[in-house]
Amino acid sequence: MRKQASVLHLDLDAFFASVEQRDKPSLRGKPVVVGGVGGRGVVATASYEARRYGVRSAMSTREARSRCPHAAFLTGRFHAYREASDVVMRLLREVSPLVEPLSLDEAFVDLERAGLPDLEVATVTAYAADLRERVAVATGGLTASIGLGTSKFIAKVASDLEKPDALVVVPPGTERDLLRPMSVSVIPGVGPVTAERLRRAGIQTVADLEAVDLAELLRLVGQAQGTGLHALARAHDDRPVVAEREAKSVSSEGTYETDLTDRRLMEGLLTRQAGEVAARLRKHGLSGRTVTIKVRLHDFTTLNRSTTLPEPTDSTATVARLARALLTDLDTSGGVRLLGVGVSGLADWIQDDLFGESSDTDGADGAPEEDEVLGVDAVEAGVKARRSVYAPGQDVEHDEMGRGWVWGSGRGVVTVRFETAGTPPGPVRSYALDEPALRPWRPAEPTENDMPAADPPA
């Protein structure tokens, strides 16, 4: 723990939903829910207007609709979220060379490397307030909550205290006083299971946890977790801000509207996902030793199975074969709603011809053999057939009306509201799904000349 509040945590407020409200003027000030819009969808982010009705992240879309039926339920536009995130992360790297992104919408910043005249509370507070204003201007109005503290743990807690659009500084020496009244769930790693185990032992607040000695805590939750909880309950956290966070795994998964029961089709989907994972490994010059599959059954039971190779690989055929083999021992007769493939144990080198079999290597383009993907197109065609051509919230463009977004679609009709971030709330028009003047819109891919210059060395 540092002597000064020089660790900053920035968290963009209700990020996905806020981007949608920024880009869709008619939704500003109204409840917005971003995530899966189908019967089995899950909420990714809810605007603060929707949260007043009890809608929360990770809630099923079905429950969210029952709580807030008048909300706008939109699918994600990840190109827009990535663009906004890139703007913020570039701005933070102008502040300090030590920026540790945690996700698209949050990051730690080490102010010890920010070139400030000092790190007194008044100085870092004024600097953080200016940073929040700069983020809002750079992103076209997105708000961020910032926490400042003597450690990453305290800064993260502080940024959550008064959301949205807040700045909270925890002065050095006050960390324990801040934490003691809080629920133990504020500590990273204390999920529902651990919280219930602690509750049964009479431990509900951080103050309760602080009063428990290390030996008793190890008995309650085990060696690995107990040591960390003992330290964090006393606000002890010496983790540095790390500019580059090493990837631990690469994965791909999909959730399906109808339970899958055909084993052949499941193998085909795993093969396709293995191809996506292997392609990402090759793109980043990585390989991995451990292949894992994730299978969520019809009753929401989630199973994970893995196998580890003697040497790392980035071969589509190898990853696909192992994924299919892992599926063999699982009982999927009741139906599967989610499948996923992941590779971990990453390295930056590859063992060529791992099994010494020519049939195990990919073709020149890294694609799986034709017989490995047999049946996948049938699955995807079936999934697409159950979906509309246009998804709610999707960006579209009309030859005469210009840019807009999909309000809804079904029964052969798509309804569009024509507006953008820089216009007033726009008109609504409906068209046949095959209207030739209407098309999906995506921003042009940046060319090499459009890419930002590399950051100078620290």
From TrEMBL:
Q: Site annotated as Substrate discrimination: where?
A: F16
Name the top EC class.
transferase
CDD domains from the UniProt entry: PolY_Pol_IV_kappa
Location in the cell reads: Cytoplasm
NCBIfam families, alphabetized: PRK02406.1, PRK03348.1
Family (UniProt): Belongs to the DNA polymerase type-Y family.
User: Could you tell me what this protein is called?
Assistant: DNA polymerase IV
Q: Which organism is it from?
A: Nocardioides plantarum
Top-down, what is the taxonomic lineage of the species of origin?
Answer: Bacteria, Bacillati, Actinomycetota, Actinomycetes, Propionibacteriales
